[in-house]
Every structure is written in structure tokens, then in C-alpha cells.
Amino acid sequence: xxxxLITGGAGFIGTHxxxxxxxxxxxxxxxxxxxxxxxxEIPAGLDWLSGPGIEFMRGSVTDEAVMRKALNGIDVxxxxxxxxxxxxxxYEIARYNAVNVGGTALLLDVLANDPKRSVKRIVLxxxxxxxxxxxxxxxxxxxxxxxxxxxxxxxxxAAHQWExxxxxxxxxxxPMATHESDPAKPASIYAATKYAQExxxxxxxxxxxxxxxxxxxxxxxxxxQSLNNPYTGILSIFSTRIRRGQHLPIFEDGHETRDFVxxxxxxxxxxxxxxxxGVVSQAINVGMGVKTTVEGIAxxxxxxxxxxxxxxxxxxxxxxxxxxxFADINRLQTVLGYRPxxxxxxxxxxxxxxxxxxxxPEDKLKRANDELKARGLMG
Length: 379
Known about the structure:
Elements: E1 3-7, H1 12-23, E2 27-32, H2 36-39, E3 54-58, H3 64-71, E4 76-79, H4 86-89, H5 93-112, E5 121-127, E6 135-138, E7 142-147, H6 154-158, E8 174-176, H7 189-208, E9 211-217, E10 219-221, H8 234-243, E11 248-250, E12 257-258, E13 260-262, H9 263-275, E14 282-286, E15 292-293, H10 294-305, E16 311-313, H11 330-335, H12 344-355, H13 365-374
Helix pairs in contact: 1-9, 3-5, 5-7, 8-10, 10-12
């Protein structure tokens, strides 16, 4: 069995991953800075960190002394620690770069300069955001040709030109499942930092003889996700508004799509990467492989809470948001031998039941949106 370091391991995915690793017989060391935006000013509900087989360290991935201590005696690193959120990344550029890129570089630097290093694999939590808009095709004039459009400009969004049109016949382009071989076209600072993480891990891993798995996560949701962070997690935002009897504001026209995957399936994908007996050394999409509209996800959530659907399409938009993206998960199944099992309906029900056991958070959506608008990043 392995001794696994999980950076950012006290967070949403790390909590679930720790449980499945312990059940599989591994031991876990967790490094987490306990950021207030994620855990609240006074972190609560963390008794599990002192459970059997778990060692907890509070500290930052940007602190060299902390990283040296955290990596000592470790077999596999699962690197989850990162600043997240597309909108916030567009004006906190230095912080996102320092934590996401700098923290990853420091981790690799410590490994590169440790003659006694024991790490044999790094599993990186990357993001579907690195694809930008992902892949499209024109169903009219060139259905066999994959296209990769540029990010939508503010002028397009302001004109409510939500979809992409074919530059040859003007037909609406249709989204295709994104392959790992499709080009990376980050549309936000957050996405750019995740792609930089991938390159750092890939290049350093090859140079140091350390295997790696770059797991490109789609929209992860489920029990335990932060209900306090207004910059990430559409389901957290919507669930708070449902409990407060408020409408659900749907950006653009509500027909933008995402690939929602339950956190338990994500944790088990990480477990498969940790336990894989051969060489991985590649990027792997982690999702359900199914696209769902934001309007549809809001309807699913309202139904799971047993309340009337009160959706308002606002036509608002944020610079850096993508229109469509869903994953081709063939590599997840063939390389890691894992296929997600939790359906959207089941996952929504589990999420709603868990949310109803939590304290009612403050609705911070307006504050976050006002900040983006003041910076010219939202309209």
C-alpha cells in the first residue's frame, strides 16, 4: 500500500478521496492551508482529520520548509491545492499564479533536489477549463471537421451572440465531446494556471523519472462542497438561494452546457490513478461524458429540493466563461479502468439531502457579481 500526500486535502475532493484511500488500505498525509474563502473564518466539522491512517499538516504549498516536511517518505502525491474560480482569477492574477503555478513549481523543485525522494507518481487535479471552448463541428457543411473557436469577446457577449456560427455557411456549430488530444486554449487566468501546472508536472516528471497522471476534471459537485464560496460551484450558489426562497438567476440564455460529475466518482478516479500498476504519464478526462444545460441543472436541483422551479434567465454574462464543454471519457475507462456510476438524478438528490443538514449560508452572489461588474468582467 502507498503513503499518499494530498495537497489541499481538507477540501471538497480531498475529503472524499481520503475516505476511499483509507478504505483501500493506504495511509494519507494531508497538507492544507485552510483558506477562509473555502472553509470559513473558523473551520468546522474537521474531526475526521485525526482519524486512523490520517496525518494532518496545516500549511501552504508556497512554503518551502512545509513542502519539504510534507513530502518526506511519500510514495504518491495527489496535488489538489489550488486557487479556483474563473471570475476571481481575472483580477487576482498574481495570487492565482503564486499558488497554482508557484506552488506546483515548488513541489517539483523540492523533489528535484531531494536525493532521498521516494515519490513515484504525481496525480494532478487539472481542469476541463484548459480546453477553453473545446471542440465543435458544423453539421451542415463539414460534419467531420473538428473546430476550436476562439473565446467569445466581450462585444459578442454584449450582443447576446451566445453560440458560435460556421465561418463558411453561418450554421450554428455543434459541440463535440472533448478529447485529451484536442488543443489547449485557456480562456481565463485560472485555466492558464491549470495548463501551466500540467506542463510543469509533465516536464519535471519526465526529467526526474516520476510517473504522472493529469486528471482534467469536469464540473465536480456533491456532498461536502463549499457553500461559502460565491466564485465557484453553481450548485452551491443555487442551493443557498433555493433555501432562502429566492429565484435562480440563469446566465446567458440558460442553454450553455457543462458535464457534471459527482465527487464520489471523481475520488474513485483518483484512487484508480494512485493504484494503477503501469505507467500513466498522460492527461485523462474525468467526467460523465454527458452535457447538461445550466437551465436543466437548475431544474434538477429544484426538483431534488422538492420546490417549485423559479428560474430567471438574466442574459448576464462573464468574460472567460465558456459556452459548451463535455468530455470524451474513453481514456478514463481504458487506461484507469474506471467508469463513473452516479447518475445526475441520484447525485442531485444526495447533494440536496446533505445541504439540508448544513447551516444556511449567507447569499454572497450579488456581492461577487457586483465586484466583477465593477472590474468590467461581467455584463
